[in-house]
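Problem 12. The chain below contains 82 residues. Write out its predicted structure in token notation.
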Amino acid sequence: MHNETNSIRLRDNLRSYLDQVLASGERVLITRHGKPVAALVSPRDLEALEKAENGREALLRARQEAQMREFQALKAGLDGDC
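Solution.
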């Protein structure tokens, strides 16, 4: 669950919002002109997001490397047929 505030209210009450995030871990969605622009999250949530992002990047890299090996093996087989 998250709380939502606009950038002006956040500026005027930053300490309160920081205390809220620290105490409860609740996320705060920050809007400008009614559109989401940023969020305040706990350090724990940030760490989880970064781990997920790093895991996704590692998975994509591994898939790309596997595809490259398959391509090179296929190419080597075709080059050998000539």
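Discussion. Residues 1-41 form a domain with the YefM-like fold fold (CATH 3.40.1620.10). Students who got a different answer should revisit the alignment rule from Section 12.3.
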